[in-house]
TrEMBL record:
Superkingdom of this protein's organism: Bacteria
InterPro entries, alphabetized: Nitroreductase-like, Nitroreductase/BluB
Name the UniProt record assigns to this protein: Tat pathway signal protein
NCBIfam families according to UniProt: Rv3131_FMN_oxido (NF047509)
GO molecular function: oxidoreductase activity
Length: 342
């Protein structure tokens, strides 16, 4: 299977309604895996139980340099949870998600018979992507911003939308400061390189990570790709690229948790996923620019600049209209699924 065939297979909607309980559970988990995750690590596992699916962290897929407290990991679980709940409702199941904090934590999604509800957000699951290219800079309509605001807010999670150019420039200053610090850290660069798939064959074989296509980089062997990365991934050039991308955007979205704990990180992920799906339904692109919330030395000043007296800024996302980029891949359901009680 080549890259284009793998993309088509990964993102195709279910061809027909699943027949039987096992097939339906597999379809729900597949939709959940189409959620985003940091570096496309796909840091989740799924366990089917009687009347429920549990989503668990896969700590073997941590990114301890960029995400030392596993914040982004639990955000990713929240994104998968939202996809699963939307897919369940589309298949005629009521879905109630509960975060269980014991041990490493898990999200249990209870599933009971209900009315089928194929919402625009569900339909957007197979079209959503993190679009790491330039946008066209045109502002969004007030009605579109209102829909994004509603979709991206949740229990204990608020959404700050920055659409004025002065506000975007202030935030950009923190993005660039944090981006430079990350790129000047050898451990960060090594971790990033470990998750880059420098060519199509590597991307298809692994089914995870950041493919050269999705990031707009040329094909290369792994040894050559790492050599080019060391030579070309420089703070000054990367900051210029990031600045151009942010300035081409219609605005920035900052997700803020009222409490800095795993339950709120999961909820932040659910809120982001609804935001991203609502944006997709409106024809709006989005991509993460999380550098100022990833760098602990920058995050407090960034929060103060936003006027936040308390809470944790979780995610920073740019949004706007622009062309699609090549899609990322996912591992097969069988590789993320555990067998629990029947």
């Amino acid at each position: 299977m080549n890259y284009d065939e793998a993309v088509k297979h990964t993102w195709a909607p279910e061809a027909a309604a699943p027949q039987g309980e096992a097939e339906r559970m597999r379809a729900l988990i597949r939709y959940a895996t189409l959620a985003p995750s940091g570096h496309n690590t796909q840091c989740w596992r799924f366990r089917v139980e009687a009347g429920a699916i549990c989503i668990l962290p896969d700590l073997t897929r941590r990114t301890p340099v960029v995400d030392p407290d596993d914040h982004h990991l639990y955000v990713s679980l929240g994104c998968a949870t939202e996809n699963l709940c939307l897919a369940a409702r589309a298949m005629g199941l009521a879905a109630e998600a509960e975060f269980r904090p014991e041990g490493d934590g898990e999200i249990r999604v209870a599933l009971t018979p209900g009315e089928a509800e194929a919402s625009p957000l569900f339909e957007a699951i197979v079209a959503r992507q993190c679009t790491r290219g330039d946008y066209d800079g045109t502002p969004l309509a007030a009605g579109e911003l209102a829909l994004l605001q509603a979709a991206g807010s949740g229990k204990g999670v608020s959404l700050v939308l920055l659409t004025e150019r002065d506000a975007i420039e202030r935030a950009l200053g923190f993005i660039l400061e944090a981006n430079a610090r990350q790129l000047q850290t050898p451990a960060f660069r090594r971790e990033l390189a470990a998750w880059i798939r420098f060519n199509d064959a590597e991307a298809v074989e692994q089914g995870d990570g950041l493919s050269g296509r999705a990031t707009g980089n040329p094909q290369a062997s792994r040894w050559l790709g790492k050599l080019l990365m060391r030579a070309m991934l420089r703070p000054k050039a990367e900051n210029a690229r990031v600045a151009h991308q942010v300035r081409s955007s219609a605005g920035l979205a900052v997700f803020v948790s009222a409490k800095d704990d795993r339950a709120h990180w999961v909820e932040a992920g659910r809120c982001y996923q609804r935001f991203a799906l609502q944006a997709t339904a409106l024809g709006i692109r989005n991509a993460f620019v999380n550098q100022p919330v990833e760098e602990a030395s920058v995050r407090p000043a960034f929060a103060r600049a936003l006027g936040l007296a308390e809470g944790r800024p979780d995610l920073v996302v740019r949004f706007g209209r622009g062309p699609a980029m090549p899609r990322s891949l996912r591992r097969p359901v069988e590789r993320v699924m555990e067998q629990g009680e029947a």
